[in-house]
Amino acid sequence: MHVQLGKYNQLPVVKEVDFGVYLDGDDDGEILLPARYVPDGCKPGDLLNVFIYLDNEERLVATTQTPYAQVGDFACLEVAWTNEYGAFLNWGLMKDLFVPFREQKMKMQKGRRYVVHVHIDEDSFRIMASAKVERYLSKDKPPYKAGDPVDLLIWQRTELGYKAIVDNRFSGLLYANEVFRTLEPGMKLEAYVKQVRPDGKIDLELQRGGARKVDDFANTLLAYIDRNGGFTPFNDKSPAEEIYATFGVSKKTFKKAVGELYRKRLILIEEDGLRASIDD
After folding, report:
1. Which of 64, 5, 62, 76 is nearest to 31 (CA)?
2. What per-residue confidence (pLDDT) applies to 11?
3. The listed CATH number (1.10.10.10, 3.60.15.10, 3.10.180.10, 1.10.260.40) that belongs to domain 210-276
4. Per-domain residue ranges of the chain
5. pLDDT tens digits for 123-165?
6. 210, 226, 240: which is closest to 274 by C-alpha?
7. Domain 8-63, what fold?
8. In the chain, fewer beta carbons within 10 Å around the N or the C end?
9. CA angle 101, 77, 57 (to 5 degrees)
10. Bridge partners of residue 25, in order along the sequence
11. What does the pLDDT read at residue 280?
12. Which portions of the chain are predicted below pLDDT 70?
């Protein structure tokens, strides 16, 4: 059995030394867990969940620190420093994560954050990162249907909208004319699948589409009115940006929900806002 480099492994403690403990890496030999990371009361025979990476001398080493990303992940990381070989990203461990110049879309700058993919370099067998994330996105057909919830990592802004990495695997797009808030690369969001296009790209939306979205928000809006003394100054004339900032939905969804509540005689539509109906 081989240890998984750049991932978490459960390994048994085989012996204690002054500077830490050694773990059984099976085919990869004994792996040091430095003393600063050894849990209190740890003894030979204990099974530890550790992250395995390479130290400055390219030897396997273990840590109980939690990295911001592991091999196979996309993440938005900050450049800690640069040199003549490339950039080094802070990923939560003692040794920073290397991005060679060939894996940079533009020259990375210290203090700035970039969306990257973490992987093992095929030539050097070292853990490194790449800002050329397109090559690491799956080419498989996404297994989603309309309305499915997904997790997003915002990747970049384009003329059409915001490119996003879906469930750490696929490429997706939030259209600019359907987004009513500022999004930045590196933001993590929950969203919904609008459709999977024939080319495998995923169209996304921040609110669930269709009648279910309107029904859900109608209940939310009615509860909001009740919590605010039976009245809210929002109505059809309110700016879309203010509606989104308060409720997280588009003005179209807001208006449909208002119409539904009015038809059910649960609210009154007044000149300056919406008021909860009072039963006779």
Report:
1. 62
2. 97
3. 1.10.10.10
4. 8-63, 74-135, 149-205, 210-276
5. 889 999 999 999 999 999 999 999 899 999 999 999 999 999 9
6. 226
7. OB fold (Dihydrolipoamide Acetyltransferase, E2P) (2.40.50)
8. C
9. 60
10. none
11. 45
12. 1, 209-213, 279-280
Residues across the chain: 280
Q: Which CATH code, of 2.40.50.140, 3.30.70.600, 3.40.50.1100, 3.10.310.40, is assigned to 74-135? A: 2.40.50.140
Which residue, among 257, 268, 280, 256, has the nearest Cα to 231 in the 3D structure?
268
Task: Tell me if 74-135 shares its fold with 210-276.
Answer: no
Amino acid at 247: F
Q: Which CATH architecture has domain 149-205?
A: Beta Barrel (2.40)
**Would you state the structure tokens that stand for residue 154, as one six-digit string?**
């915002």
**What string of DSSP letters covers 126-138?**
-EEEES-GGGGS-
Torsional class of 213: left (φ above 0), alpha (ψ -120 to 50), beta (otherwise): alpha
Q: What is the pLDDT of residue 217?
A: 82
The per-residue pLDDT for 68 is 97
Q: What pLDDT is attached to residue 181?
A: 76
Instruction: Report the side by side order of strands in the sheet with 231-232.
Output: 231-232, 273-276, 267-270
CB 217 within 8 A of CB 253: yes
40 within 8 A of 70, measured Cβ to Cβ: no
Two structure tokens written together for 202: 């995923």
